[in-house]
Design a protein that fits this description.
Elements: E1 2-7, H1 14-19, H2 26-37, E2 41-46, H3 54-62, E3 68-72, H4 78-91, E4 96-100, H5 102-106, H6 108-114, E5 119-121, H7 128-137, E6 148-152, E7 155-158, E8 196-200, E9 203-204, E10 224-225, H8 228-242, E11 244-249, H9 258-271, E12 276-281, H10 288-296, E13 299-307, H11 311-315, H12 325-337, E14 341-348, H13 355-368, E15 372-377, H14 385-392, H15 424-439, H16 442-451, H17 455-469
Parallel strand pairs: 1-2, 1-3, 3-4, 4-5, 8-11, 11-12, 12-13, 13-14, 14-15
Antiparallel strand pairs: 5-6, 6-7, 9-10
Helix pairs in contact: 3-4, 8-9, 9-10, 13-15
The structure holds cobalamin (B12).
């Protein structure tokens, strides 16, 4: 059957978009590969990478006359999904519409209550979506399919839950042939080669349970890994077939198992020399051997979720975050030593935050002096334990809440949900002050300017500066 998979547009301003990664949608590419393997004809419409006016969006969705249409859902762009589903159902009422991804997985009844979609899938879709397509192709109802929440008269029925995929190495590679690689980019401040980019996933899930994150939650997901050989073979295929020069590992923490990360690095050095990549790393996994291996294999930037400069606050983030500030210091120093740029992100407003702990974060960022530090105000994300706490405390109405995107707090205190004793206005003021203080140091500014690799990077720096300094 004809299946259309849609990635929604992101409601971002120009400066915000300049700062975002625009990478191939691995979720839809994995789903497409499984659907194609089952014999279906699949198209991907990535409106995040290639936004277009509403009339053209509709034309692009209907031209293929999809019998099944799937929409990825994200907390900050759920209104765009509702709008697109309404338009598609109006134009093609017989098309079966299914929602998927984290928002629909956590809040399926709410998502189905706000738009005329027929079903929401809870969790991973590589097995579930071909099962749905097979039922529909056979003219059967999807009733009783595990993993789905289905519209059922005036209400909704949730089927039995479906466990996370046990063996992700058995999945076909993402259907990269369905996208236009020229539509994707890393912001010039992050890109190294200026060439084509792609995302890659060497593992799924996360073994840690940080209170502000949602990834471990509904998926009950312990980390599941792919064979290093298979990961590198896929990257080589993408590099050779599509001319990709630079990758981003989208794993929650690429370095979670240092021995495995080193094996991937060894294979990359041997089989894909000259490639550039970046990844998220956990500070407590950093070591001389690992960071040396990463740099030798082409890693040019690591992202560390430092979150806070207060050891007390760090300890309260979740049973497993368990990172110490001295480990963060060591990780930043090691990244610098091995010539990898390092990004540190901080959250302001976690439960227990005070003016003093917030200042500790600024002081810590200044002490670490990474290539880039970003302070954002906590935006409880759907599916996290902090989000659930905010709902219980009556601070969030899950039907109307649209928070999630860290940049949303830049628009003002209106969208901030306070989970600590500090008022929203003060958190926003602290965020702006800290970002300015970090960036406005003359030595830092000079370093960033001298390190700029391209005119595009200079332009991107100007956008970032406008974003931080203009308010
Ligand atoms: C890439 C990415 C993005 C990209 C996505 C677009 C792109 N292509 O570049 C962008 C930059 C837009 C993004 C933005 C944000 N992200 Co993000 N992102 C990721 C990341 C790193 C990888 C996603 C991915 O490809 N996973 C691999 C695929 C295979 O897994 P999956 O996405 O879960 O997809 C499976 C199922 O969910 C399901 N499925 C997914 N889509 C669909 C669609 C249909 C139709 C069906 C049936 C099934 C289905 O099937 C898929 C295959 O099994 C994840 C972390 C991670 N490692 O997963 C965070 C992650 C999803 N993001 C997260 C967050 C917090 C955000 C932001 C809120 C960040 C912020 N604070 O601003 C924003 C939200 C944007 C918004 N509009 O609201 C959180 C969770 C968010 C949540 N609860 O929804 C995660 C888990 C990171 C984290 N640990 O905190 N993100």
């Amino acid at each position: 059957m004809r299946v259309l998979l849609v990635h929604p547009p992101q409601p971002l301003g120009r400066a915000q978009r300049e700062l975002e990664n625009v990478m191939p949608p691995l979720n839809l590419l994995y789903l497409a590969a499984s659907l194609k393997k089952a014999g279906h004809e699949v198209r991907i419409l990535d409106l995040y990478a290639e936004p277009s006016p509403p009339v053209e969006e509709l034309a692009a969705m209907t031209a293929f006359k999809p019998e099944l249409a799937g929409f990825a859902t994200y907390p900050g762009s759920i209104d765009e999904v509702y709008r697109l589903v309404k338009a598609l159902k109006h134009a093609l009422p017989k098309t079966f519409v299914v929602l998927g991804g984290l928002y629909a997985s956590y809040l399926p009844e709410i998502a189905l209550g706000q738009c005329p979609a027929d079903a929401a899938l809870l969790g991973e879709g590589e097995l579930a979506l071909p099962e749905l397509a097979a039922r529909l192709a056979a003219g059967e109802t999807p009733a009783g399919l595990p993993g789905y929440c289905l519209r059922d008269g005036a209400g909704f029925t949730r089927g039995a839950s479906r466990p996370p995929l046990a063996d992700i190495s058995a999945l076909p590679w993402p259907a990269y042939e369905l996208i236009n690689f020229d539509a994707y980019r890393l912001p010039p401040t992050r890109a190294v080669t200026g060439g084509r980019v792609s995302s890659v996933l060497s593992a799924r899930g996360c073994n840690f349970s940080c209170s502000f994150c949602s990834h471990h939650y509904g998926y009950a997901c312990a980390i599941r890994v792919r064979a290093p050989e298979d990961v590198v073979a896929e990257m080589r295929h993408v590099a050779e077939t599509y001319g990709v020069r630079e990758f981003r590992f989208e794993d929650c923490a690429f370095t979670a198992d240092p021995a495995r990360a080193r094996r991937i690095c060894a294979l990359l050095e041997e089989r894909l020399p000259g490639i550039a990549w970046n990844c998220d790393a956990r500070a407590d996994t950093a070591s001389e051997e690992l960071f040396a291996a990463m740099r030798a294999a082409g890693c040019r930037r690591v992202f560390l979720g430092v979150e806070t400069g207060s050891q007390k606050m760090l300890g309260a983030l979740g049973a497993n975050k368990a990172i110490r500030l001295d480990q963060v210091r060591a990780a930043v120093a090691l990244a610098k030593k091995h010539g990898m740029r390092v990004n540190c992100s901080f959250v302001l407003g976690l439960p227990g935050e005070t003016r003093e702990t917030a200042r500790e974060s600024l002081d810590f960022a200044l002490e670490l002096d990474p290539d880039y530090a970003m302070f954002a105000v906590l935006m409880p994300v759907v599916g996290s334990s902090i989000f659930n706490q905010a709902v219980r405390e009556g601070k969030i109405d899950p039907v109307t809440y649209r928070g999630g995107h860290y940049l949303a707090s830049y628009a003002g205190a209106g969208r901030v949900v306070t989970m600590c004793g500090l008022p929203a206005e003060e958190l926003v003021a602290l965020m702006r002050e800290f970002n300015k203080k970090f960036c406005a140091r003359p030595a830092y500014l000079l370093r960033r300017l001298l390190a700029a690799r391209s005119a595009g990077e200079l332009r991107s720096l100007a956008w970032g500066a406008a974003h931080i300094f203009s308010r």
